[in-house]
Amino acid sequence: MGKMIFQKLDLNKEPVNDETYEVQFNPTEFGLSKSVKFADVIIPGLDSPITQFVNGENEKLTMELFFDTTLEGGTGADAVSVTTKVDPFYRLVKVDGDMHAPPIVRITWGEHFPGMTTDQNEQAMAAFDCVVERADRNFTLFNSDGIPLRCNVALTLREYRTLEEQLTALNLRSSDHTRVYVVREGETLPQIAYNTYQDPARWRTIAEYNEIRNPRQLKPGTVLHLPPVRR
């Protein structure tokens, strides 16, 4: 198996100037966690509140990376600071000047990392798109001049998915509930109406519900609310 790779991405999830960082040693373990948020709906007279789903939380990936430069320069006069290997990963938690935010990162490791998705399709994914939420450095070895030679870096990474990616993954097809839909390049309201209600004539319903005055000016990326079917 090859080394784990960190690829820096822009806001469109495109690689940034081939900024790719390979870990020195693959992690011996990593953890994935997923949680959801519920709210209590208080109804007077009931013995307990009604529990209502609010939203899912981002999946989190935690791991610890180990870096060691004693194999390169030893511990004497030719010692190499381990920060030369650590800093590219540590900078991923800092604000990027072009993005005005910490960068998006794509982590890959072989063909089957990190495993199954948490959406309804349950498809295996080979990459984890995320932002670095926290990075903790722990230097464990120094030479006599104080040069750090070994370091453990604990990373907490928060899943990053666009609105369109999440809506596609959720696969909310029921026409009995209001849906959120992101318009794609080249789509028209009749097409969206057909895909949603199997009736292109319902485009007027969508237009009225979203207060669209000129359907021909529908732009990619527009967020629509698709009303439920009246039975």
Order of strands in the sheet with the most strands? 2-1-7-10-11-6-3
Number of helices: 5
Summed up, the domain count is: 2
Helix coverage percent: 10-25%
CATH topology grouping of the largest domain: Elongation Factor Tu (Ef-tu), domain 3
Brief sketch in words of this structure:
This protein has helices at residues 70-73, 83-90, 163-170, 189-197, 203-209; strands at residues 5-9, 15-22, 30-33, 36-41, 50-56, 60-68, 104-108, 115-116, 124-125, 127-142, 148-159, 179-182, 223-226. It has 231 residues and is an alpha+beta fold.
Write a structural description.
The protein has helices spanning 70-73, 83-90, 163-170, 189-197, 203-209; strands spanning 5-9, 15-22, 30-33, 36-41, 50-56, 60-68, 104-108, 115-116, 124-125, 127-142, 148-159, 179-182, 223-226. By secondary structure, it is of the alpha+beta class. It folds into two domains: 5-161, Beta Barrel (Elongation Factor Tu (Ef-tu), domain 3), CATH 2.40.30; 172-226, Membrane-bound Lytic Murein Transglycosylase D, Chain A, CATH 3.10.350. The strands form four sheets. It has a seven-stranded antiparallel β-sheet with strand order 2-1-7-10-11-6-3, covered by helices on one side. A two-stranded antiparallel ribbon has the order 4-5. A two-stranded antiparallel sheet has the order 8-9. α4 (189-197) packs across α5 (203-209). It is elongated and about 80 Å long.
